[in-house]
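Readers of this paper often ask what the protein records in our data store actually look like. Such a record has a labelled line for the sequence and another for the backbone structure tokens. Nothing more is needed to write down the fold, since each code stands for a local backbone conformation. The record that follows is passed on verbatim for readers who wish to inspect the format.
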Amino acid sequence: MTTIRDVAREAGVSIATVSRALRDPAIVKPDTRAKVLETAERLQFRPSHLGRQLAERRHAAAGVVFPDLSGPYYADVVMGYESVAAEVGRSVLISSTRGRADVEKQVTDMAGRCDGLVILGPAVPEPLVQHLKATGTHLVLVARPADAGIDSVSTAATSSATALVRHLLDDGARTFVFVGDPAAGPDVADRHAAVSQALAASGEQTRMSILPVDDLDETNGRRAADALLHDTTQDPTHDTTGTRTPHGDPSSTLPDAVVCANDELALGLLARLTEAGQEHRVRVTGWDDVMAARWAGLTTVRQPMRELGATAARLLEEQLDGTRTAPRHELLDTELVVRTSSTLLGKEPA
């Protein structure tokens, strides 16, 4: 197999000159360029993709850093990202910071092995993001507050939250519980804020409490349902209005509606309510629209999860191929999907 060394020796030039003549011929003298191209053609030399990457100090790989790797949400984001990366011949390295004590080392090492990083949600602390930015790392932020100097892609929560609240109010809901911890991450905080603002703007007499959970999974959804069902000596929710929830028979103290921070929580909560025979007393909603939500009849806010990943890949590729230098901030639309879990009017209690 002919190598770049063979071409350089035959043409009487350096390896670097051959590389420049093939990669960026405008910077090579015309007669030298013609000699290199003629020699390469005569020797049937075809530069390898890997060789170009090494010469240009590139890796042909991008890193995606998640706060967690479990759950359908992250899987869909990865699939969207990988679909675009495959089109441009770039491999993908995936890492999770969950439970890692050495996040700074983990992420900086990954940045050194990749051409750029996509950071999802709260996976990386802000000081480290700013350090990576200052050192020239190509970055894209996903589902995270935008930085003026860094590409970002996120979803719009306000209009869908307004539609969700209007739907629940029209069905008769007046007491609400938000399941999730707004302090745990920017996406949960955005969803809680959007629902709170929609309730405040509705003009109705409503009350919403927060029931924080450690992780946004089905197990914690079931635990949240137990906290709402069981008569305890202390209110398990934090009421954002400062009013305590009364205790007694669970069926009389359950909220009218439960808004979960994601579908996994909602699916676990709905399953537990069904086991307790209370599913017809509480309107339950989620957020994301994972596949299981469709089978369970879960009302939710549909997020373009694959498009989040695909858009992040496109933004990073534009940085890497030099077609754009000014930061871009993409905001993708979401939509309310109404199913049976949120509608009680006209139904007989179980």
Notes: Confidence is low (pLDDT under 50) at residues 49-57, 231-236, 239-248.
